[in-house]
Amino acid sequence: MKCSSAIQKIFLMASDSKPQRLRQWASFQSSAAKKARTMTTQSSLKDAFSSYADDLNHLNDKREKVVKASRDITANSKKVIFQVHRISKSNKEEVLEKAHKDLAAVVDQYVAKLVKELRGSDFWKLRRAYSPGIQEYVEAATLCRFCKSGTLLNLEEMNASLSSLSDPSHKPLQINILDYILGLADLTGELMRLAIGRISDDELEYAQKICTFVREIHRELTLLVPRMDEPYDMKTKMETMLQSVMKIENACFGVHVRKSEYNPLLGSGDPSYPLMGVAGGIDL
């Protein structure tokens, strides 16, 4: 009897401990699975952020190269503008020919380098990096066109001239309309300097032509700027543009006034012509 009761007691203890062992095993498996999932999640997050870091580093490296290319375009476009300002009555054709050659070199060497750096990327992401160079190029190109033909180089013509630089398998570089307008606003300042120089060289008709051209640009942009999505950059340029228009107008007006006052006197061969308000002339 004692043996039988002992066996029953052992059997009952084994029966009671079995569910407990099962619960412990299930808990162990659950914790192991959670740990595995946590490790997998941590590993995937680490890989994802490593990929993000590589993308950002690549974008920053490309931005630095684009900024360098933009600076080269800016510096060499300024040289073209300085070349145009050397224009005079006697050397107009020679100066403009050299300016157009220099402008072509800017496109072939420096704009082409920018296109190469931007190849395969979204242009809008790096627009702020290369916008100053493009604006300066627009300014130089439009100034050369005006001095040669008296007309405005429009955006479609400019983009068409740059299309050959791009690889056919990639999206071609297109000058943003905002960069074109900003460059056009800067053009008026250079035209003001050109007009003052032409007045000093006794080319008043050419200065008046420049004045009319700048007025038209200012009038059209005055209507356009309020409709722009980002007019902040243009507001400052519009104020500067108005000052340029006023400077050209005042210079042309001053020359007209002086000529109206002194030309009759200098052109008169009559010794009795009234001189400086003296009636009856001067007895010689």
Provide structural commentary.
The protein is an all-alpha fold. 78% of the residues lie in helices and 0% in strands. The chain contains 7 helices and no strands. Helix 3 crosses helix 5. The chain starts with a helix and ends in a 17-residue tail after the last helix.
Question: Could you provide a short overview of the structure?
Answer:
The chain is mainly alpha-helical.
Q: Structural class, from secondary structure content?
A: mainly alpha
Estimated radius of gyration: 39 Å
Distance between the termini: 169 Å
Unreliable runs: 10-14, 273-284
Average pLDDT: 80
Strand content: under 5%
Question: In which range does the helix fraction lie?
Answer: over 70%
Name the helix and strand elements from N-terminus to C-terminus, one letter apiece.
Answer: HHHHHHH
Count of runs of 4 or more consecutive helical residues: 7
**Main sheet makeup:** none
Topology (elements, then pairings):
Elements: H1 2-84, H2 92-118, H3 127-149, H4 155-162, H5 177-200, H6 204-224, H7 232-267
Helix pairs in contact: 1-2, 1-3, 2-3, 3-5, 5-6, 5-7, 6-7
Describe this protein with a few key phrases.
single chain; 284 residues; mainly alpha; 78% helix; disordered C terminus
